[in-house]
Amino acid sequence: QVQLVESGGGLVQPGGSLRLSCAVSGLTFSRSVLSWYRQAPGKERELVASIGYIDYSPFMTYYGDHVKGRFTISRDNRKNTVDLQMNTLPPEDTAVYYCKARYDSTEYWGQGTPVTVSS
Questions:
Q1: CA 107 – CA 93 distance, rounded (Å)
Q2: pLDDT one digit per residue (tens) for the chain, 119 residues
Q3: What's CA 11's distance to the chain center, in Å?
């Protein structure tokens, strides 16, 4: 059974930082493309960042324009985790953040972790 469990969400002040983590089990993690998405109230879910599984030292990454330079995605193939470091957060980053794993053409999602940026 594939499971993705996000953690690290919460309330943070504008300009602050937060680190999300997603623990993945039940699939071949080292061969999976991993992504973080988010969905703000009243908006569609959008891609935040992705990281590939081929180690080109470093792994290839992709970031949405809205988070470039502020967010960093990373993976740990020993712990089967994918993290999202979020810095300089404005209120517009408030959303539920979801972890996704794509393996063998199948996608798996976590339940999401809420992030609220507010003073």
A1: 24
A2: 999 999 999 999 999 999 999 999 999 999 999 999 999 999 999 999 999 998 887 899 999 999 999 999 999 999 999 999 999 999 999 999 999 999 999 999 999 999 999 99
A3: 17
d(CA 87, CA 90): 9
Query: For residue 19, how far is the Cα from the chain centroid?
Result: 9
Distance between CA 19 and CA 10 in Å, rounded?
10
Q: Who's near 77: CB < 8 A, 6+ residues apart?
A: 29, 30
Q: Taking the mean position of all CA atoms in its chain, how far away is CA 75?
A: 10
